[in-house]
Amino acid sequence: MESTKGVISRPHIAKAIVEAGYDYSWDYIFSNFIGEGCKAYVPNKTISTDEGISLLKESGAISVLAHPVLIKKTNVEDLFKLDFNGVEAIYYMNRPEDTIRFKNLAKKYNKIITGGSDFHGLTKTDGSHPNRIGATTLDQGNIEKLLKSIDSI
Asked: What is the pLDDT of residue 31?
């Protein structure tokens, strides 16, 4: 599991068992060790968006709705009514009209405008992501609003 990056999940555990030399199939590992109802099974704990925002606030963080353009099953404007601080209105997958829409919603619901490249791959060298850290920029006014929000925590 030394090569695993990020969250370790059941497939990582099954792979580690096989790589350790145990003569078990993935099906056997899931059916007998890490599948639902097995001794080593740990269920996921889910919380509501409101609970998540509250936990972030209690811990002194600001909360930002990330890449709203990718949200398909929920009315995005309904989400703006929640008590988060900002929205990633500037995002590499947005069309120009998406960015305008999210900026307008941010203004309407008094949210900070943020931006992001969504680049998570400092260890990736394959060039599979079109943006790098720093490729997405904010204007000075939005940077100041973000910093002011952080200072008020």
From this structure: 96
Domains identified in the chain and CATH numbers: 1-45 (no CATH), 49-151 (3.20.20.140)
- How far CA 149 is from CA of 27, 58, 75, in Å, comes to 49, 15, 26
Q: Please write the tens of the pLDDT for every residue from 31-44.
A: 999 999 999 999 98
Measured CA to CA, the distance from residue 93 to residue 121 in angstroms comes to 17
CA angle 91, 53, 58 (to 5 degrees): 125
Instruction: Go through 72-88 and write b for each residue having 16 or more CB atoms within 10 A of its CB, e for each that does not.
Output: eeeebeebbeeebbbbb
What counts of helices (H) and strands (E) characterise the chain?
A: 6, 3
In degrees and rounded to multiples of 5, residue 88 shows phi and psi of -80, 75
Averaged pLDDT of the chain = 87
Taking only Cα atoms into account, the Rg of the chain, rounded to an integer number of angstroms, comes to 20
**CA pair distance 62, 149, nearest whole angstrom:** 8
pTM of the model: 0.67
- What's the rounded Cα separation, in Å, for the pair 134 and 151? 22
Retrieve residue 109's tokens.
């619901």
Decide if pLDDT at 68 tops 70: yes
